[in-house]
Amino acid sequence: MTDQRTERRGASAARDAVLVDPIDLAGLTAGDEPPVVLDVRWSLGRDDGHEQYLAGHLPGAVYVDLDTELAAMPSPAEGRHPLPAVADLEVAARRWGVREDRAVVVYDDAGATSAARAWWLLRWAGLTDVRLLDGGLAAWTAAGLPVEAGPVTAEAGDVVLTTGGMPTVSADEAAAWQGTLLDARALPRYLGEVEPVDPRAGHIPGAVSAPTAGNLGPDGTFLPDDALRERFRGLGVEPGAPVAVYCGSGVTAAHEVAALASVGVPAALYPGSWSQWSNDPARPVATGR
User: Fold this and answer.
1) Residue 129 above 60 pLDDT?
2) How many domains does the chain have?
3) 86 and 185 share a domain?
4) Which segments constitute the Rhodanese domain (predicted)?
5) Considering the domain boundaries, does residue 57 fall inside one?
6) How far apart, in Å, are the Cα atoms of 98 and each of 142, 155, 180?
7) Residue 87 belongs to domain spanning
């Protein structure tokens, strides 16, 4: 029998390595070796992610604090969400219950735009079986699946993390990038019309506007493979050519990297992103298209 989910979404091996749907995740969590499930609710300008988690989350899910556990201390020199030291990330991952022999699934309530930071960091730190819950909490509840309230304390994990599992670029490398450089921020920020948090408005010269929201359908799930391929082709992404992505501080850019990975396109992340670039007066800034 044809898998209706595969037929509906144009699923592929690449997609299945990045995304999992609610029904499949429910089956996995009921199995003998359930994945570690992480709740990464966060959004720019809000600090109530933990309160939202406590009010209702996937059964057994552990809350992850993006600002303190998925980033080092912010600074003008490194940006608003610098990569954490791998030793610090390992301590946090063990608190979440991450183990060498278990898969990890991460989710949020914003189309995976914050959960993708955990997905990317754990992949960067050497884990390979890490996926995003496609559609997040909304898709889970829409499927009629249960949630629970209150905190979850996981049994300590034993994971050992390294670095280098995902490619990165520095500010200098972004400046000299010879492939497609995608800017995952909203279009008005790229154009330089608004800048709510960083010191200068605009974008890195040569970058192409590719707002992360364009990776998602109206229901908050990732677009089908064919639609994602068409989108990225229209943005200048060519098969086999180098691709790098940045955003405001390396959070939503991870979502763009995940979307590209789901259609088999590897992409590097610029961790410092605009928050680092715009704090350096020696770096040029472009506005408009």
Assistant:
1) yes
2) 2
3) no
4) 31-149, 180-286
5) yes
6) 27, 9, 34
7) 4-142
Kindly state the tokens that stand for 53: 């988690």
- What pTM did the predictor assign? 0.93
Is position 263 within any domain?
A: yes
Q: Which of 142, 162, 185 is the last residue of a domain?
A: 142
pLDDT at 217 over 80: yes
Provide the pLDDT for residue 172.
Answer: 98
Residues 132 and 17 reside in one and the same domain: yes
pLDDT the model gives residue 220: 96
Residues in the chain: 289
| Residues 19 and 138 grouped into a single domain | yes
> Has residue 134 got a pLDDT over 90?
yes
195 pLDDT band, cuts 50/70/90, is: very high
Q: What's the confidence (pLDDT) of residue 11? A: 61
What CATH number corresponds to the domain at position 49?
3.40.250.10
| Span 248-262, average pLDDT | 97
pLDDT for 3 beyond 50: no
Torsion-angle region of 17 (φ positive above 0: left; ψ -120 to 50: alpha; else: beta): alpha
Whole-number Å distance between alpha carbons of 67 and 71: 6
User: Do 120 and 46 share a structural domain?
Assistant: yes
Tokens of 131: 């996926």
* Active site (annotated) includes residue 28: no
Runs of H (alpha helix) within the chain: 4-9, 13-16, 22-29, 49-55, 66-69, 86-96, 115-124, 136-142, 171-175, 187-191, 225-234, 252-262, 273-277
Q: Cα–Cα distance between 52 and 41 in angstroms, integer?
A: 8
Q: Are residues 127 and 10 in the same domain?
A: yes
